[in-house]
Amino acid sequence: MVSTAATLPIPEAPDPKRYVAEVTRASGSSFFLPMMLLPREKREAMLALYAFCRETDDVADEIEDPAESRALIEAWRGEVRALYQGVPRHPVTRALAVPIERFGLAEKHFMEILEGFEMDGGGAMLRPTLAELERYCHCVAGCVGLLSVEIFEYRARTIPTFARHLGQAFQLTNILRDVAEDAKRGRIYLPQELLEKQGLADIKPEAIGRTPGVEKVCRSLGGMARRHFGAASEALPRSERRSMRPAILMRSVYEAYLDRIERAGFPVAGRRIRFTATQKLRLVTGGLLRTI
User: Fold this and answer.
1) Helix (H) and strand (E) counts for the chain?
2) Using CA atoms, how far apart are residues 203 and 214, in angstroms rounded to an integer?
3) In this structure, what CATH number is given to the domain that contains residue 221?
4) Nearest CA-CA partner of 31 in 204, 287, 285, 284
5) Residues 131 and 73 placed together within one structural domain of the fold
6) Do 259 and 153 have their domain in common?
7) Domain end: 50, 71, 106, which one?
8) Are 166 and 240 in a shared domain?
């Protein structure tokens, strides 16, 4: 058991830039390839941002004791405050020090990311309300998008709206991919209001994969994701397609995931839908054409 005054473990890492690059590469995320197309300074900033998300998300996903998870999230809050006071200690926050100055990254968004992961670790994501789900998606994905577009740099005032909607769409798609895996962790991200419409207001995680009607809830959630993708398109002027290229390339992968989930009938059991590295490369290449 970790006390509420938990100390953040600090890995030995003489080179913070190498540390965050290795964290990102090891994750096998769809994120890595689009970021390699950025100029060096922006690429290093995005790798540091992703590593922050990866390391803090692991606190929620890998630590089963809620008290320990909360204490470590609080320790990360302290490290973010230290970062903005100019005295970061962790290799991830050390790697973020230059980007927050260069791109004007807001402290509140890092704190909101931690709020989202705290919702995970605190058990709040068990049949959340629609409002709670929206807040969660904003914290763990929308705020990442808002920080990312500052790194990409833009002129159009609609770009933060683009980032918020794309973040919602990405996270809802992730939820649809992970229904069975999340249930094994005791989590149901499907919102209460949609479950109630199918008579599933009190469904338990262990029943997710064998209960009729769950796929209809997932279909409704898929419709929400589609609407957010549409709203993101409306908020992206043609003049910003090149600057938002990494986000558009990520979208090409996530929207393809949603397409496949839809074609499969929104399955809630079985293996997680995945793309091979070759398939991801094809999708990213196709997305690249949209930015020309």
Assistant:
1) 14, 0
2) 9
3) 1.10.600.10
4) 284
5) no
6) yes
7) 106
8) yes
At residue 6, the pLDDT reads 67
Domain that holds residue 65: 12-106
How far apart (Å, rounded) are the C-alpha atoms in residues 265 and 240? 35
Q: Which of 76, 106, 136 is the last residue of a domain?
A: 106
pLDDT confidence of residue 288: 64
Write out the two tokens for 241: 């397609």
* Contact call for residues 102 and 153 (beta carbons, < 8 A): no
Q: List the single range of 242-246, 247-251, 276-280 with lowest mean pLDDT.
A: 276-280
How many domains are contained in the chain?
2
Range with lowest mean pLDDT among 25-39, 186-200, 227-241: 25-39
Residue-wise pLDDT tens digits, 91-103: 999 999 999 999 9
Is residue 36 exposed (0-12), middle (13-18) or buried (19+ Cβ within 10 Å)? exposed
State pLDDT tens for residues 18-30: 999 888 888 766 6
